[in-house]
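New to this. Look over this protein:
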Amino acid sequence: MALFELHGRTALVTGAGQGMGTGAAEVLAGQGAAVLVNDIEPDRAAAVADRLRGEGHDAEALPFDVTDLDAVQAALADRTIDILVNNAGNGGAESMRVRPFAETTPADWAGPLAVNLDGVMHCTHTVLPGMIERGWGRIIGVVSGAGTQGVNIGVAAYSAGKGGAAGLLRSVALEVASTGVTVNSIALGLMSNTGGTDVTSRLARSIPTGRLGTPHDLGALCAYLASEEASWMTAQTIPLAGGSITS
């Protein structure tokens, strides 16, 4: 059997209508998983699912807003999810607002915290009981070095959401470790779909490997964590950052 083979498994990738989520969906589909392509924008989800099916993969669009618990539960009520990739994040339905924390208000924190923490909690809580009952499951959180180490670029609420998600998933991992369900997070460094600002360019030059991360880099690590071979890997927050984040 090929390594990291996922035939017979169903994977839900949130925020998969673009960027890193699309990369994760592509790689998981390539490894044989049936992929549910989630996005808050139905057209984006449909476009990715259509393209994957055109390439011979099993894929279906499943749009919903991860920050809306009722919507999450309704969308997944009759679904068997073996693999959950909690990728939806950033600023949520709104663009990321870069601003020093001292200049923000609680209203500025609501969106980043809702998508980066509450969204992970909603999706994880919805699929976890079924995984425990079946005795097999893989939950993966896409977090960030901004949440594990902090950054000085005006995204404190985003950092709090990502750091909170990583902590949540480590605790869940330990609670369910004996059930056949593993739970891990991937702490991303600077990725190729990050905006091309002066700050981004300066930080990119400091990456030891000399390049930005790609959606395929994320997808490859997701494929490992989703596989049978990763059954002894749990409760970890794994840096994927070209050497710019060390554990």
About this structure: Residues 106-134 form the longest helix (29 residues).
